[in-house]
Amino acid sequence: SQQGEEDPQALSIQEGENATMNCSYKTSINNLQWYRQNSGRGLVHLILIRSNEREKHSGRLRVTLDTSKKSSSLLITASRAADTASYFCATDASSNTGKLIFGQGTTLQVKP
Amino acid sequence: DARVTQTPRHKVTEMGQEVTMRCQPILGHNTVFWYRQTMMQGLELLAYFRNRAPLDDSGMPKDRFSAEMPDATLATLKIQPSEPRDSAVYFCASGLVGGRGTGELFFGEGSRLTVL
Hints:
The complex is a heterodimer of chains A (112) and B (116). Chain A has 112 residues and is an all-beta fold. Chain A contains no helices and eleven strands. Helix content of chain A is 0%, strand content 55%. In chain A, the strands form two sheets. In chain A, strands 2, 4, 5, 9, 10 and 11 form a six-stranded mixed beta sheet that branches. With 116 residues, chain B is mainly beta. In chain B, strands 2, 4, 5, 6, 9, 10 and 11 form a seven-stranded mixed beta sheet that branches. Chain B has a four-stranded antiparallel beta sheet with strand order 1-3-8-7, with no helix packed on it. In chain B, strand 4 and strand 5 (42-50) form a beta hairpin. The mean pLDDT of chain B is 94. Classes of the chains: A mainly beta (112), B mainly beta (116). Chain A binds chain B through residues 2, 31, 33, 35, 41-45, 48, 88, 92, 95-105, and chain B through 4, 31, 33, 35, 42-43, 45, 48, 50, 55-56, 91, 93, 95, 97-98, 101-110.
């Protein structure tokens, strides 16, 4: 069963614009992670934010976490055509198992 | 670069046939996961192992699916007999969990299964 619900399901923007994707989850978490998947490929880890963190940056990526609202957002700034992919949030509810439950994902299209 | 290797990348088979998918996790990782991805259900966790021991396989249809780790370099997912509803992309992922583990998972490129 899915832990995360992502919004929007699909997003189309022009190159250079910012893209924001949101994720909501249901249970308490140890950490939340974002992954990227190019068409026909495996998932690639982007960033991890722990439950005691509120914001994290990595290059053009900015992730926020609001545990009171059980939600997270991923912001990609100055998007490029190469950012076109599906983006998934995944929650780890236990520090012992590493088990990740994935959301349904947001499909991002960046037009050149 | 260390990577998770999955074989086969593509498999087309007929209903009722046995299918075995293989995964070589990254050396040094202590946890291996099997996920299934479909358009309708998204990414579903089927089973996972810690130090080769099965921790949880509650996501798998028990009557036809089995997962094993015969050694640290090989994880297998077997479907017998296969059914058309098993058509999906099956991903193996490995990670270092606990201790100095980062918590991130490394995914293989997947095995795309089509059951006719």
